[in-house]
Write a structure and sequence with these properties.
The protein is of the alpha/beta class. It is 24% helix and 22% strand. The chain has ten helices and 19 strands. Strand 6, helix 6 (104-110) and strand 7 form a beta-alpha-beta unit. It binds pyridoxal-5'-phosphate.
Length: 337
């Protein structure tokens, strides 16, 4: 069986992006966020490729994700960012993964195990993490990494330095400190501490202007032509008849739609074939129409590359680069090169 749509995944680009981020992390170790199934690319495949480059620290959100990854390669650490619930404890105690303790409740839950853990301090994002004044609750825990997370790393905000200074000031018996996500790495070595945690930029996202030209696209959606047709002048295409042909035009119907994560935001805005084929009319659940006047021979069964450079696709659709990756659906065959 072969699916009529595929996600071509460039393993060399992934590896090069990690090496670049590791270099930008200076003396800090560089890890990898592989939550949400490796931002939609396939977490296991990402881990295996990055381990070969020297990556040793990985991050998922939940214990389900940790379990789904399977056995970690020798010498690798896995941290579960959402910490540990009562209902996770049986799995967590047997796992080599470490919970990232976020609250007094989680710290109290983990303390009796005596097992290794990480902790998250909230230095201003007010999302997950212990308040700095509760840092004393971490005393006596077997603490590997103390983390915090930046709220505005993709902007030039005064909050960045404040959060950096707040983490630096925390006197907690952890072996390492960690603050920077992809955008945080771009802020400079003062933000790297001992360990960085990039996600988006590994997968081809450009988190800040400084990263432009340094991050390579990793995920390339491609769809097969189901049917080629001629649409006469004056006729419409697709649901709602929102597109009306001004002249006779050549159209390819492609096997991709919003159920695959190619969302309706691309209607009238997306392109394929390196800008040559505009998306015409609405995006259907399983199909789109593209104009192919420029391509006289394209026909049934041919593969068309959907334009999906993350910064460009984000501009066209109004979706974030994060959303563009994590919505990509299960009908794609994921093919690594
Ligand atoms: C998702 C996540 C990251 C990775 O962030 P990117 O912006 O994708 O680089 C790092 N740290 C934490 C705590 C996260 O939740």
């Amino acid at each position: 069986m072969s699916a009529p749509l595929r996600l071509r995944l460039d393993g060399d680009a992934l590896a090069a992006n990690w090496r670049r981020l590791a270099k930008m992390s200076g003396g800090a170790a560089c890890g990898a966020a592989v939550k949400a199934d490796g931002y939609g690319l396939g977490a296991r495949a990402v881990v295996e490729r990055l381990v070969r480059e020297g990556c040793r620290d990985f991050f998922v959100a939940t214990w389900d994700e940790a379990e789904a990854l399977g056995a970690m390669p020798e010498g690798c650490a896995l941290s579960v960012l959402h910490g540990v619930r009562d209902e996770d404890m049986a799995v967590a105690i047997r796992s080599i993964a470490r919970p990232v303790l976020n609250s007094p409740e989680q710290a109290a839950r983990w303390r009796p195990t005596g097992r290794p853990c990480d902790a998250m301090a909230d230095t201003g994002i007010n999302r997950l993490g212990l308040q700095p004044e509760d840092a004393g609750l971490l005393a006596g825990l077997n603490l590997e990494t103390l983390m915090s997370h930046l709220a505005c790393a993709d902007e030039d905000s005064a909050m960045n330095a404040r959060q950096r200074d707040a983490l630096a000031a925390l006197d907690v018996p952890a072996k390492r400190k960690s603050l920077a996500n992809s955008a945080g790495i771009c802020l400079g070595e003062g933000f790297a501490f001992d360990l960085t945690r990039p996600g988006l930029a590994l997968y081809g996202g450009v988190p800040r202007a400084e990263a432009h030209g340094h991050v390579a696209q990793v995920a390339f959606p491609e769809a097969q032509v189901v049917q080629r047709r001629r649409v006469p002048a004056g006729e419409s295409i697709g649901y709602g008849a929102t597109f009306i042909a001004q002249a006779d035009i050549e159209v390819a119907i492609l096997n991709i739609g919003y159920a695959d994560g190619y969302l309706r935001a691309f209607a009238g805005a997306g392109t394929a074939g390196r800008g040559r084929f505009p998306v015409l009319g609405r995006v259907s659940m399983d199909l789109i129409a593209v104009g192919i006047d420029a391509e006289p021979t394209l026909g049934e069964g041919d593969w068309v590359a959907i334009d999906y450079s993350l910064p460009g696709a984000a501009r066209a659709s109004g979706l974030s680069q994060y959303e563009l990756l994590t919505v990509l659906g299960q009908r794609f065959e994921r093919v690594w090169s």
